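S2.1 Query sequence (Peptidase A1 domain-containing protein)
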Amino acid sequence: MHPWVFMILALFSLSTLSSREAREGLRGFSVDLIHRDSPSSPFYNPSLTPSERIINAALRSMSRLQRVSHFLDENKLPESLLIPDKGEYLMRFYIGSPPVERLAMVDTGSSLIWLQCSPCHNCFPQETPLFEPLKSSTYKYATCDSQPCTLLQPSQRDCGKLGQCIYGIMYGDKSFSVGILGTETLSFGSTGGAQTVSFPNTIFGCGVDNNFTIYTSNKVMGIAGLGAGPLSLVSQLGAQIGHKFSYCLLPYDSTSTSKLKFGSEAIITTNGVVSTPLIIKPSLPTYYFLNLEAVTIGQKVVSTGQTDGNIVIDSGTPLTYLENTFYNNFVASLQETLGVKLLQDLPSPLKTCFPNRANLAIPDIAFQFTGASVALRPKNVLIPLTDSNILCLAVVPSSGIGISLFGSIAQYDFQVEYDLEGKKVSFAPTDCAKV
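Output structure tokens follow.
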């Protein structure tokens, strides 16, 4: 991080304010997830056709995979991956006392929670006023020797002139957020409503020098990370939510909202649930890994031959990526079963498409994770491009990078539960519009 950034931040003088020391028991609550292409999203463009939205989602997937692979290949810091306008889902929460509403990108592949704060040296445009920590009775800045500060990577922290813990996050496209680490009350639900739940002393970044090289909607004000890192929202809530969260994702064109659930509400209680070990690698602590043993296509079995956590499960990437050799075997088996001729003139970046015939019989396709067979429906695997009457696979090769990723389209209409303490991920087919 550039020395001048820390010199600027050292000039800020923030007073230490009191905070509530409330202790909360195990609880359950849920929040709405807003798909970036839904009508309620600030990114919604009504002029786009369904096919154009799908292609844009595929392009976002490609961009995100490049950033993930950059980290996996070169051992970059986990927070170096997320570009705020590349996320797929947003959520509203409230911060401070009195509470102020914020809209942030939510992502299972990111850790630190941060938003833009005043006084700001350099902030990207946002529709509402910046968060003012000095106007909140529950704000405290973290000191350089505090436990919250030590949870940052050494290269991500410095000490300000007044002893504040200063964080610095550099993203994959050279964008960055720099600010003061602090603690504050985060609330979910409507302010003052009976369903509101609050969590005091939540660690977050108060960004006062933020720059993004890619345009961001002025309604989005920060990031809420759901990754496995110690500063993510789920890691911080920890025992208060039983170390459990789940989501139920709907396609972008649904008129309902997807749900993100925590604690007792996150537990799957329906029939048909299957579970697989959750693997968190010490060298890659932000990401959630599963082990994919095979994919079955009707009676055909395409094996991976791997057992060490070979696929990232990620809600922020629409497409599913498979290692190239495995992908080629998967496509060959699918083509043989379907008996179709693959198209050569493909809409980039999709890689496998064929004519959408009325009598086309789609075989049963299941991802065979260790201990869990997840049966996918056609909408989890195939993308209809109505403009050209073709079907394309929502599964693509990982372009020689050698990593696999289980994306959000494959997870549509599944309740997916993460049990960080029990170290497992569970799937249950669900009508997410009714959750």
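The longest helix spans residues 50-74. Residues 1-24, 74-86 have pLDDT under 50 and may be disordered.
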